[in-house]
Amino acid sequence: QVQLVESGGGLVQAGGSLRLSCGASGRTFSSYYMGWFRQAPGKEREFVAAISWSGGSTYYSDFVKGRFTISRDNAKNTVYLQMNTLKPEDTAVYYCAIRRGPGRSTSPHDFGSWGQGTQVTVSS
Q1: Of the residues 35, 86, 107, 121, which has the maximum number of CB atoms within 10 A of its CB?
Q2: The dihedral of CA 55, 2, 117, 5: what is its sign?
Q3: Which residues pair with 71 in a beta bridge?
C-alpha cells in the first residue's frame, strides 16, 4: 500500500507563502489522483486541490483558485501545494490522500491512504 507523508507547514503572516510537500512510497502514482485536503478545528475536512499523476491535469476548490498551485515531481514521487497570498481562513491541518479510480472527485470519502497532516497557521 502507498504511504504518504506531508511536510512544509508552519506559521506565516497573511499574504505570505508556503509550499507543502507530500512524499509517496510503496507504489507509483500511475492512474491516481493525488489530492490535498484541509481541516480546521471543529470543521469538516474539505477539498483543496488534486492532480492526476500520469497526466498532470488539476482541479481546485473555488476558495483557492488563483492562489494555490498543485504540482508533481515524478522522479521524487512527490506532490506539492504552493500556497500564495495566504489568508487567516487558510489555517488548518493539511492532508494529502490518493484516489485510485478514474474521474474527478472532491469528496474525502473517495480518497484514502491519508497522511498524518501538516499544520498551516496564518496570522493576521
Answers
A1: 35
A2: negative
A3: 80
